[in-house]
Write a structure and sequence with these properties.
The complex is a heterodimer.
Chain A (H helix, E strand, L loop, with lengths): L22 H21 L8 E7 L8 E7 L37 H21 L10 H28 L1 H13 L21 H23 L4 H39 L7 H5 L6 H17 L7 H8 L21 E8 L2 E8 L4 H27 L23 E2 L5 E2 L1 H11 L3 H10 L30 E2 L4
Helix pairs in contact in A: 1-3, 1-4, 2-3, 2-4, 3-4, 3-6, 5-6, 5-8, 5-10, 6-10
Chain B lengths: L15 E6 L2 E6 L17 E2 L1 H16 L6 E6 L4 E3 L1 E2 L1 H6 L2 H25 L2 E6 L2 E3 L1 H7 L3 E5 L5 E3 L2 H5 L7 H8 L4 H8 L5 E2 H6 L5 E3 L4 H15 L16 E3 L4 E4 L2 E6 L4 E7 L9 H7 L4 H19 L5 E7 L2 H13 L4 H18 L4 E6 L5 E2 L1 H8 L2 E5 L12 E3 L3 H4 L9 H5 L4 H8 L5 E3 H6 L5 E3 L4 H14 L2 H12 L6 H16 L3 H4 L4 H4 L14
Parallel strand pairs in B: 2-4, 3-6, 4-7, 5-8, 7-9, 8-10, 9-12, 16-17, 17-18, 18-20, 19-21, 20-23
Antiparallel strand pairs in B: 1-2, 10-11, 13-14, 14-15, 15-16, 21-22
Helix pairs in contact in B: 1-3, 3-13, 3-21, 4-6, 6-21, 11-13, 13-14
Classes of the chains: A mainly alpha, B alpha/beta.
């Protein structure tokens, strides 16, 4: 019997779920494993599969010291199955089963709902790996290359986590769904990934940083709300995934921050005062701040779409069933049932954006999105503090929630980043000042040149303040020349 | 609540008498006013409640098994000037909806059994009506093969439910008037909308009865008619019956009923009743004579009787049970041998009656408004008639191969000829024909496997089971299914299952259990019948029902 936090390495799959004693699930996972490795080799990071990468591997679920760093070839990474320790006497924290003991087995009546949520969450994990597979060729440094791979292998582990739940708790249907997770492909016309944002290309490193900052943060919010689940194995899985997810957000925030910082420094060095003098700034080989703002606008709005419709019966059902809670549910001071509560929801009424009180139960998505926006604003504040420190007169802003939306009540409207509803013609006229166009993309692409010397960084991005695992600046995070 | 017991025998009857004289039996309805199953009503004018019908069902059954030489049964009243006033109105007005529904279903099944006695077994029912024959009383008459009405200026037949009670003649009345007796629809409309009914010449002209006889010649004519019917019957003569001895049954606490060939275990939390049938422990009788000597002790008859009783018990006494799980255990080859003896001797009256009884029990399963699932597990004996139970279920789960730590033989399924031609459903098709309505090739593929012991993979390939799971998935899949089922609305499930079970052609039976019953059950919920001012509630108060006039 394993004690909480102890990770077993006696099976092919490191785990703290007693896999070696669970013949049924072990057999199922071992059957799934070769397909996963094939998927990783074919659709994982391109060109670096046989390189030694300095990666952290989860070896424990103890918050202090859960990871170990070492060189490993990615296909040999030990993707494990790790659940946060079981909380003794945990009860269902919301919905109609509020206060009942948390479920250790799938309740039959919610099986389909749970499976759907797990599959959707699971589908995003390999999708982002697929989206990012070409980025290795243009990494601005070995440090960044390593961070990309770290994110990739951990998304792979998160896929394992979801697949474990499918195999363990959802029988034959679960196995079928687990196979499906390897069959869909990001951007494929035949079998696309389930959510729109996960079929968009990640063409360059600024996109990657924006993605990890904004889109992975959606993932974080989804995990946070699933971590509240009354289905305890899902809750425990998501709680541990959040530990890893923090690093992805760190990669995003610091990546965007270092890009901004390098631009500001270059402007100061060249004596350029006007951030909107795009030609002059671009001539310095850095990405001008208005273009970074446009990239921000794009990724933020795409990520908001991931929260689904503002008013959603599915979300209400999942909450009421005790399957998917709210962000930090247990810290919210209310009845956790929401039978009579209301929540302000933005609506488009006669061409104006208005706030209406709606039943809180059906506005669960809206609330999570609001929490997301608050969470996402933190990094933007820190970027602005950094810009201010360099003396450049520019502020990054999050666009209005109605800007550039494809899903929800604003999908039909044209709204400026400031929140003004405008005509389709006015939108067309100004779109390119708010969202990146082909020439912006081409310019960014022109800067994407691989820097493969330890301690060196591409000219458009500043070095990090501190190395991974406290390694010195010239540490060789990826060994490109030896296998 | 008192448990409703479906077991009785003639010496305990309060409402019926059987008088056998050679080929003709008299089945006399003489309801004891004070013998109601529940308090609060008197069974006046030969009106009936479930208790009366339980005795009727028992009598009909005993006439088949205990009196095989009887070829004509005269159904008549033991009271003066009244045949039968139908189901007791005060009983209906006071009964819970579920009781009314199950009561009607059971009475319908019994009426079908009366018809089947003539059609399948040459034991024909003749109804001799003197006095008022109304509502359920006329429905009893309709279930007979021949109706004789006294032509005395007052004896009449009537279906007064609509004008009088704001409900339907729900025990097959509407259906048999048009389907069986083929009364013209406009005349049927007139007939069903009048309280007082129809008598004499018009009743015969409209085909509501077959024969009119004066009171003076009544006895004589009825007996003559009975003898004539008996003469035409193909039923064997001069055979001895067997005694339907009391069932071996014990209630082992509230959650368990143990019979000699099966047990019922109730999981209250899950709302699940598991019926586990134990295959025969002994070799099949070596001849049909031995079978006759064994009589009610023969496994194959015991099992049918006990299963029948268990189903009725669950239906009437265990309303919270939403799912019935069927399991079997035993030696498949022994089941096959016991069944084979019947098939090889189906010219013998008893072998034939037992097969016909299984047909009725299987229909009883079809018509049980619970989710039905067969679990075909290691050590089980789903062969022939027992396999047919799995085909009656909404789903079947079959275990693949051996289970770890379980030394019982892997689950198998065996088809026998009975699965193709012995047990038609109420749609007159076999369960496999109904199952494979859209794929006749599958039916032939299954037929080609008769006698083969089919493992799970093959049974699944042949489409004979819903799912096959190995021991890795078995427990979880079954648990999840049962939990999911428990989470759905019982009403929606009843409706869904009743619709999915009976694909294919309509018959009089399917119309009774589908159309007539569904409408009746809807009307039974409506205020116009059962509300405070509804006709059923107000019956006998002198006040008429007040109706919400909107059509729905």
């Amino acid at each position: 019997m394993l004690t909480a936090g102890e990770v077993s390495y006696d099976t092919q799959i490191p785990n703290n779920v007693g896999l070696s004693g669970d013949r049924r699930v072990l057999k199922a996972l071992e059957r799934w494993h070769p397909g996963y490795i094939d998927w990783w080799k074919n659709l994982g990071p391109e060109g670096f599969q046989d390189r030694m990468v300095y990666l952290r591997t989860a070896v424990s679920v103890d918050p202090k010291g859960w990871a170990r760093f070492d060189y490993v070839k990615m296909p040999e990474y030990r993707w494990g199955i790790l659940l946060a320790p079981q909380v003794e006497g945990r009860t269902i924290p919301f919905g109609e089963h509020y206060g009942e003991p948390a479920w250790q087995e799938v309740p039959g009546e919610y099986r389909a709902m749970l499976r759907r949520l797990i599959v959707i969450q699971g589908d995003t994990e390999p999708a982002s790996v697929e989206q990012q597979r070409h980025l290795g060729a243009t990494a601005p440094s070995l440090y960044d290359l390593r961070n990309l791979f770290q994110v990739n292998v951990e998304e792979g582990r998160h896929l394992w986590a979801m697949v474990y739940l499918l195999h363990k708790y959802f029988g034959a249907d679960g196995r079928e769904e687990a196979d499906g997770l390897l069959q869909r492909r990001s951007g494929s016309a035949e079998a696309p990934r389930m959510l729109g944002a996960f079929n968009e290309a990640t063409p360059d490193w600024l996109s990657f940083f924006m993605f990890t900052y904004f889109t992975d943060r959606d993932g974080k919010m989804q995990l946070e709300s699933l971590a509240q689940s009354g289905f305890d194995p899902l809750s425990r899985t998501c709680r541990f995934m959040l530990t890893e997810e923090a690093h992805h957000m760190f990669v995003g925030e610091t990546g965007v921050g270092r890009t901004i910082q390098r631009t500001c420094e270059a402007m100061r060095e060249a004596g350029i005062e006007d951030p909107s003098d795009i030609e002059a700034v671009r001539a310095l080989g850095v990405i001008d701040l208005p273009t970074i703002q446009k990239k921000l606008n794009l990724h933020f709005s795409l990520s908001l779409d991931l929260f689904g419709a503002e008013v959603s019966t599915n979300a209400a059902n999942a909450f009421n069933a005790g399957i998917k809670g709210r962000y930090q549910e247990t810290k919210i001071d209310d009845d956790h049932r929401l039978l009579d509560a209301t929540y302000p929801v933005s609506q488009l009424v006669d061409g104006r954006i208005e706030t209406t009180e709606m039943p809180a139960l059906s506005a669960i998505n809206m609330r999570l999105r609001d929490d997301y926006i608050r969470d996402a604003a933190g990094g933007v504040r820190r970027w602005n503090a950094m810009i201010a420190k360099t003396g450049v007169a520019f502020e990054m802003t999050l666009p209005h929630e109605a800007f550039n939306r494809r899903i929800g009540v604003f999908a039909e409207a044209q709204v400026t980043p400031g929140g003004e509803v405008i005509s389709p013609e006015a939108w067309d006229a100004q779109r390119n000042s708010w969202l990146p166009d082909g020439s912006d993309g081409a310019f960014i692409q022109s800067l994407m040149k691989a820097e493969s010397e330890p301690g060196k960084y591409a000219g458009w991005i500043a070095p990090p303040k501190i190395g991974i695992d406290n390694k010195p600046g010239d540490f060789e995070y990826v060994k490109l020349h030896e296998a | 609540m008192t448990v409703i017991d479906f077991q009785t025998e003639p010496s305990r009857y309060r409402h019926w008498r059987i008088e056998v004289d050679g080929e003709v039996a008299q089945l006399i309805m003489d309801v004891d006013e004070d013998g109601g199953l529940f308090d609060g009503y008197q069974l006046k004018l030969n009106s009936y409640d479930l208790g009366v019908d339980i005795e009727l069902a028992d009598a009909v059954q005993r006439l088949r098994f205990e009196h095989p030489a009887v070829r004509a049964v005269v159904l008549r009243s033991g009271k003066e000037r009244v045949f039968c006033a139908g189901a007791n109105i005060r009983m209906l007005a006071g009964a819970a909806h579920a009781h009314k529904v199950n009561f009607c279903k059971f009475t319908n099944e019994t009426r079908n059994t009366m018809e089947a006695a003539g059609a399948d077994s040459g034991q024909h029912y003749i109804c001799a009506v003197q006095g008022a024959c109304a509502g359920g009383g006329y429905e009893l008459a309709l279930a007979c093969d021949h109706i004789i009405l006294a032509d005395d200026g007052s004896s009449s037949v009537a279906l007064p439910e609509v004008p009088l009670l704001a409900v339907l003649p729900g025990t097959g009345g509407l259906t048999r008037v048009t389907d069986k007796r083929k009364v013209r629809r406009d005349r049927a409309d007139v007939f069903c909308a009048m309280e007082e009914g129809v008598k004499g010449q018009r009743a015969r002209e409209w085909r509501l009865v077959d024969e009119l006889v004066s009171n003076a010649a009544f006895e004589e004519s009825v007996l003559a008619r009975a003898k004539e019917v008996a003469r035409k019957s193909s039923r064997p003569t001069a055979v001895e019956g067997i005694a339907l001895t009391p069932l071996q049954r014990s209630f082992d606490g509230p959650d368990s009923v143990v019979y000699s060939t099966l047990s019922v275990a109730i999981d209250r939390v899950g709302g699940i009743a598991t019926i586990e049938i134990h295959g025969p422990g002994e070799a099949a009788p070596d001849s049909v004579e031995t079978l006759q000597a064994q009589g009610a002790a023969a496994w194959v008859l015991r099992c049918a009787r006990e299963l029948d009783d268990a189903l009725l018990h669950l239906r009437l006494n265990e309303l919270d049970v939403g799912v019935v799980v069927f399991r079997t255990s035993g030696d498949p080859s022994l089941v096959a041998a016991h069944e084979k003896l019947l098939l090889e001797n189906d010219a013998h009256w008893l072998a034939r009656e037992i097969l016909l009884y299984w047909r009725r029990v299987l229909k009883r399963i079809d018509l049980t408004s619970r989710s039905l699932v067969a679990l075909i597990e290691p050590g089980s004996c789903f062969v022939g008639m027992l396999a047919e139970i799995a085909f009656a279920c909404d789903r079947s789960y079959m275990a693949e191969g051996s289970f770890e730590g379980d030394n019982r033989p892997p689950a198998t399924l065996t088809l026998t000829p009975v699965n193709f031609d012995r047990f038609p459903m109420s749609n007159d098709l076999s369960r496999l024909e109904t199952r494979f309505l859209g794929e006749p090739d599958s039916l032939e593929a299954a037929r080609a496997q008769v006698g083969q012991t089919l493992p799970a993979e093959q049974a699944a390939d042949l489409g004979l089971v819903t799912f096959a799971f190995d021991d890795i998935d078995w427990d979880d899949e079954v648990r999840i299914f049962l939990e999911e089922r428990a989470s759905f609305s019982p009403d929606a499930l009843t409706g869904m299952e009743a619709n999915l079970r009976f694909a294919g052609p309509e018959t009089m039976e399917t119309r009774i259990f589908g159309r007539l019953t569904a409408w009746q059950n809807w009307i039974f919920q409506r205020p116009n019948a059962v509300g405070e001012e509804g006709a059923l509630r107000r019956y006998g108060t002198g006040l008429r029902g007040t109706y919400d006039k909107r059509r729905v």
